[in-house]
Amino acid sequence: MYDVNKIRADFPILAREVNGQPLTYLDNGASAQKPQVVIDAVTRGYAEEYSNVHRGLHYLSNLATEKYEAVRGIVARFLNAPSEDEIVFNSGTTEGINMVAYGWAAPRMAEGDEIVLTVAEHHANIVPWHFLRERQGVRLVWVEPDADGSIPADKVLAAVTERTKLIAVTQCSNVLGSIVDVKAIKAGAGDVPVLVDGSQGAVHMPVDVADLGVDFYAITGHKLYGPSGSGAIFVKRERMDEMRPFMGGGDMIREVTRETVTYNDPPMKFEAGTPGIVQTIGLGVALEYMMGVGMENIAAHEASLAKYAAERFEGLNWLNVQGKAPGKAAIFSLTVEGGAHAHDLSTILDKKGIAIRAGHHCAQPLMDHLGVPATARASFGMYNTTEEVDRLVEGLELCHRLFG
């Protein structure tokens, strides 16, 4: 049985007050809080076990290397990747997608080649492709969501042409909460590789990259209840063999002379410089924690929260929920009739101890499509409760009374 109160007890920050009110943390889509086991692992990593990894022959270096490299297997298990050698560590999804843009896409794309992506993408899955548009004349082909915020696989596939070289798509919109059937997209894409931004998807549902069949799947640690500055990307082996290094230096080399450089084997080939050692170790602990709770259990709990929140919001006829796709994640972008800006809502709710996100959520093309400058986003996580939904609704009702 899912015991949300037991889970909440594992997150020390949830016991604090903000502005004299119990903290109601609903900004998980931006960054999730950390369980005590992650905090302890990071503290221990710096206080008792810190050293640089690889190449060192002393005790602390060997210990740090062992713990750091063990995370590669944890990530592979979390994503059900066929091999841990298909996992590249990085600072998060943004770096992972940029690595693919520079290391895989740029050498393979010429003027007029196309990348298919949706209007619902986070800027991290837009800006790297704009680089290729600016520098190489690559064409970006945009797929718009349906009226309810759904992004059907067949709509994405309809945008594919003989010039399409990549499909880059989120698995879960960070604004709308819409779930995208990336497995169907990959199945229908033929030889076209598919990159998935899993920043939100991996948080809210079990992920099996072997079953999905996708070529690239990026995750970011700070949304997965792990440290900021940690992340990883799954790269299918054949795609990895086609990639050039993204950055140079450190462990990505095998030998350097005045005349030549030879590269290390993947995935080390794509991990230059001193990595985020303790952050990555913390990520491994966070993923183990999530798998211990059970991703299916987390998904079921959040689905229940999403259903309850949607029902409560339906009773507020002055509240607009942007995106009502069936089966959406527990992510709600809200606007209020009567002129109240999202920043006003966030400020008032903060006085009640309720933390939400206000702005364009790094999704300006989607804001333009929706016809709004910003939204107030409440995004739920594994530790949130129906009582916190009620607190949010009470706060929104206060906002409505204040702004009329």
UniProtKB/TrEMBL annotation:
GO biological process: cysteine metabolic process
Cofactor field: pyridoxal 5'-phosphate
InterPro entries reported for this sequence: Aminotrans_V_dom, Aminotrans_V_PyrdxlP_BS, Cys_dSase_SufS, PyrdxlP-dep_Trfase, PyrdxlP-dep_Trfase_major, PyrdxlP-dep_Trfase_small
Domain Aminotransferase class V: residue ranges: 24-392
Pfam families for this protein: Aminotran_5 (PF00266)
Similarity annotation: Belongs to the class-V pyridoxal-phosphate-dependent aminotransferase family. Csd subfamily.
Enzyme class, broadest EC rank: transferase
Catalytic reaction(s) noted: (sulfur carrier)-H + L-cysteine = (sulfur carrier)-SH + L-alanine
Any GO MF annotation of the entry: pyridoxal phosphate binding
Keyword presence, Transferase: yes
EC nos: 2.8.1.7
Protein name per its UniProtKB record: Cysteine desulfurase
TM annotation in the entry: none
